[in-house]
User: What shape does this take?
Amino acid sequence: MSTQEERFDEVVSEECKLKEWTFWEIYEAIGGVSDTKVQYLSNQKKVAWFNDIISFWQVWNTLPLKNLKNYFYDVSTNSFLSHFVNGNQMRVATLSIFLKDVMPKWEDPANTNGGEY
Assistant: This one.
């Protein structure tokens, strides 16, 4: 490999780098039972993380979230995507993407001016 090709690879590699991000799933009891703050904090889970374009697409193509149409509720099977969390069957209520080390909660100082879709 020539020096020019090596330099090109370094530039492309740096251009593809992103900040480190984490995908979180936030769960709630099936049936919509409201949770306390303590339960909310224990009913969330990091499901993936990425820091470049390649790892983003690996995550996206591996997790069921790649088909957002059926991620929260699958019309064809009339069912929710669910997991057992702390021994309880829970449905995915929220999918969030946050910078690494930022917790998916309003109380995190990094989220003071944040928003939600």
Residues 3-111 form one domain. The CA atoms of residues 13 and 19 lie 13 Å apart. The helical segments are 3-16, 37-42, 53-62. The mean pLDDT is 74.
